[in-house]
Amino acid sequence: MHKFFSLLIVSMLFCSVTALADNSKKSKLHQQAESIDAKENVAMARSTYLQAFSDYANRGEIALATECGTKATALYYRESLYQEAFDLLRRIDQTVNASSLSTPEKAGCHYWTSKERFNMYMKMHRAEPAKEHLNVMDNQANLSGDEALKNDLLYSKTIYHYTFGQTAQGNAVFKEMVGKLTACKEFDKVDEVYQTLIANGRKSNNASLVAQSYSNYLAWKDSTNAIKHADEMKALKDQIAANKAEIADKDSSLTTRWVFIVGLLILSGALAAALVLGAVVLMRFILQTRKQKKIIELANDSNALKAKFISNMSAQLEPTLKKLDSRQSEVQALLDFSKHIQTLSELENSDEQLEMEEVQMQQFCEELMNQIRGTEQSEVQLVVNAPKMNAQIYRPYVSHILTHLLKNAAEYTPAEGKITIEFKKRGQHKIEFHVSDTGCGIPEEKRDDVFKPFLEIHDLTKGDGLGLPTCKQMALKMGGDLTIDRAYTRGTRFVLELKA
Fold it and tell me: What CA–CA distances, in Å, run from 30 to 162, 184, 294, 307?
């Protein structure tokens, strides 16, 4: 499925560049036809395209005539008027054959009429005639010598193979398309098409497509950022090497001059050499600092844009997802994932002032523990260890963090185990909450990764891996931190440190 979704993305990019003519050359009839909403008035749009086709044909502008004629064809078979569509395509081909176009130009026009026949047979799910026209399109694309047509052909081939269950052939075409795109490094275009694919998934209410595409997009975005940063680091190293070479040349020149004047004035020569060397070192430091600052600024800008895009995309997805059947575990998981993504993105971008509230700690901790009672394994002890004292906290964030930690503890603590929540005052300006369990614990090698979002692709029905990263961000927003107590060996202990 991953390859199929990526294939659709790349193919849409190729299709977007196959327009037959420049907008500036379109006639008024052509522009009028394009301005009509075909969803609202198919007949009027089709009629106007047919008039534009005849007008272009009479003026000898065959490429534009072909474009308008094929668009009218598509509007015929949209309403299942296949006979009219085939008749119009024959008329277009006759017009092309009777024209004075060169052989490659005629092949390019015939490609589009063959593609419309291919599309009709695909709509009728007739494999053999669709395959025949695919072969015709292949010959015409090669004869035209037009790379845009060859790229569009890859799209049509792939759709054919996947539609009729020919996965191996579809994957082969996909590999060829990805190779072309990778060689070009057209990251901005890929980003735009990913967004188009996600939007299409939303329009078709395909929750699986949206989830897979969104996960693929995040993974692709991270890999692209790594490539861009690697390129920037290479450029920086090349610049440093060039600076070193330039400095070496200057050092050589300075040494020659120093030898020339050392016999005349040793003290002056020594001072001059020291000043020049100091200036060179300072210049190198300034250059390196500026480059590093630029890289940091680019990374921060990239993260900010990524967080903003994720938040906007999640907000746009949510209304569509709510229209789906939330009783299905996949839909509910996707709704939760959308909400968690939006929360995490808002935390990363928010500068909101947090209003502190004075809370009685023992009562607060008891209320949190009561939320998980009944969800724990049999005979698991639930222990609250908090003094009857007040403390200033931002209640919404602290409640969210501790409730999430307690729910995790209830899930992973075996029967006859123990779950504990503790409150400790660590001096005049520091407080701590501890949530401990006697479960299997978190492996040492994974403890640094549990607070990192999007580290790996999860099965959303089993959790999206954003709970702890969100808690970590909330702790940081409060001027504190959320960590794992590495000295605790009887299970897992999380420590929430906050300013008092």
Answer: 35, 33, 48, 42
